[in-house]
UniProtKB/TrEMBL annotation:
<dbReference type="InterPro" id="IPR017871">
    <property type="entry name" value="ABC_transporter-like_CS"/>
</dbReference>
<keyword id="KW-0067">ATP-binding</keyword>
<dbReference type="InterPro" id="IPR017911">
    <property type="entry name" value="MacB-like_ATP-bd"/>
</dbReference>
<keyword id="KW-0547">Nucleotide-binding</keyword>
<dbReference type="Pfam" id="PF00005">
    <property type="entry name" value="ABC_tran"/>
</dbReference>
<protein>
    <submittedName>
        <fullName>ABC transporter ATP-binding protein</fullName>
    </submittedName>
</protein>
<dbReference type="InterPro" id="IPR015854">
    <property type="entry name" value="ABC_transpr_LolD-like"/>
</dbReference>
<keyword id="KW-0813">Transport</keyword>
<dbReference type="InterPro" id="IPR003439">
    <property type="entry name" value="ABC_transporter-like_ATP-bd"/>
</dbReference>
<dbReference type="InterPro" id="IPR027417">
    <property type="entry name" value="P-loop_NTPase"/>
</dbReference>
<comment type="similarity">
    <text>Belongs to the ABC transporter superfamily.</text>
</comment>
<dbReference type="InterPro" id="IPR003593">
    <property type="entry name" value="AAA+_ATPase"/>
</dbReference>
<feature type="domain" description="ABC transporter">
    <location>
        <begin position="5"/>
        <end position="223"/>
    </location>
</feature>
<dbReference type="GO" id="GO:0005524">
    <property type="term" value="F:ATP binding"/>
</dbReference>
């Protein structure tokens, strides 16, 4: 299985009031092409910090992060931005949709930034949203959508540019249990259909059991 994500001896230390707090203490992790991996761990174990590192959203890390064959530690700021845009998709607990754009436009925008034509981007957006059961809500703005519908739009947006790797941080944590089950099932189905790899942080053992593999982060290392 081809490596899509490779993390080697990843470390992150924060300093608060002159006290060094080592959040990541030498994480080693590999995610293969098309593999969906659950990242389990209690609050404070470093899950979000690890996703921030892998998502190239923060500096200050030591160690190696490889994304689809690219060594991220050797990238300048422009290179990191291009890698996020071209190879990564993100789904967060809160959808972060643009409130003045409708569902289709929220999924079109990242594609336009990526270089797609408006017609290509719109067709792709409508296809993804329809697959997620939102074919009748294409022109609705976020304020007109339920929480589950908004998160479906966020999933479509994350997959719009066909990323090699999708990163998700408690993607259904803001939804009630029944809605979370439905949205998460659709999320997994679409990720598998698109052929992306995924690293999904959660504290929910039941959701984690649906994925291909579970890794546990405890005290800053993979347990």
């Amino acid at each position: 299985m081809n490596e899509i994500l490779g993390v080697t001896d990843l470390r992150r230390t924060f300093v608060q009031a002159d006290v060094a707090i080592e959040v990541l203490r030498g994480v080693n992790l590999t995610v293969g092409q098309g593999e969906i991996v659950a990242l389990l761990g209690p609050s404070g174990s470093g899950k979000s910090t690890l996703l921030q590192a892998v998502g190239l959203l923060e500096g200050g890390f030591e160690g190696s992060i490889r994304i689809a064959g690219i060594e991220a530690s050797k990238l300048d700021n422009d290179g990191r931005t291009a890698t996020r845009r071209d190879r990564l998709g993100f789904v967060y607990q809160f959808h972060h949709l643009l409130p003045d754009f409708n569902a289709t436009e929220n999924v079109v925008l990242p594609q336009l930034i990526h270089g797609a034509t408006n017609a290509e981007a719109k067709a792709r957006a409508e296809a993804l949203l329809t697959t997620l059961g939102l074919g009748h809500r294409l022109s609705h703005r976020p304020s007109q959508l339920s929480g589950g519908e908004q998160q479906r739009v966020a999933v479509a947006r994350a997959l719009a540019n066909r990323p090699a790797l999708v990163l998700a941080d408690e993607p259904t944590g803001n939804l009630d249990e029944s809605t979370a089950d439905v949205v998460f099932a659709e999320f997994l189905r679409l990720v598998r259909f698109e052929g992306s790899a995924a690293l999904i942080a959660t504290h929910n053992e039941r959701l984690a059991a649906r994925m291909d593999r579970v890794v546990r982060l405890q005290d800053g290392v993979i347990a």
